[in-house]
């Protein structure tokens, strides 16, 4: 027999209502709790809405310090362009009104606040010593870490040629032996550097921060190239004297030849010449570096012997080194036939005045719908020790 199924338990009886005075107290407490919770909620309970949408006017495609520096210079050039348009009564043209509104919006956004005056105009010294940072990616000298001094005006006396700190043992009360001036003073002067760039009106009127970065980048690249050309081989009086016209001429010696053994002799010889000068601080602390043309670098990089690569550390694509020192190369040196070694800390780039920008029209600019932008600064180069650089000449590899 199957057991008799149990019957379901009876449903619970409905609770009796609370007395009126107790129900009123419960309702009041619930309402008070809900109101407190609502008061504590933020105005937007969902929180801020975050999107990845770019502001095509103000956002840089490549957000980096270099891009910001290029954009700052480009904004200065756009401001000069707008100022010229207003001067000739074209400021109310639709294109220039859009550019004016764009520059106003850039200022309001604050990302380039440091380049505006309180009145809204660009400061006169917008770029100042940042020209060094602007030009650095395009210059092997700046990339090697040469020293820079800014804002010294027309002349700055640094000391005496080849005279460093002198250290003596002296008796109590006895003065140290004074240094002897050998070949005159080390002086930074000012040589005017002008960069000209023909730019289309369409690009200058375009209200976008990327357009400003393109314009500024072009100007920075041109200045960086000229810094290297003059820094290595400039000769006065209009241009500053570069390394080759300040260094010890006896430190420029002929290449040993093109064999693997010759290449080792050249690379060791250039470095050894500077090492023997015993410049205070030594090679590493003074940021020693090798330099050559691109072809010479590639020839050294590809040299092999029976044991493999002769200079394996040159195989690094991004940071090639030789004998433990950075190796910089450039087409600036393409026709020079040199392999050099130098101490970056002993070469000074002086920037006597900030970079200033202006604009005008030259030749066929009007018919081509272009303008010529001009950047002007004043610079000089100074090599503190003549033996801080050495070169192998007549290099045929």
Automatic annotation (TrEMBL):
It holds the Pfam family Phage_capsid. This is Phage major capsid protein. InterPro entries: Phage_capsid, Phage_capsid-like_C. It comes from Corallococcus soli. SUPFAM superfamilies: Major capsid protein gp5. It is found in: Virion. Residues 119-390 form the Phage capsid-like C-terminal domain. It comes from the Bacteria. The lineage of its organism: Bacteria, Pseudomonadati, Myxococcota, Myxococcia, Myxococcales.
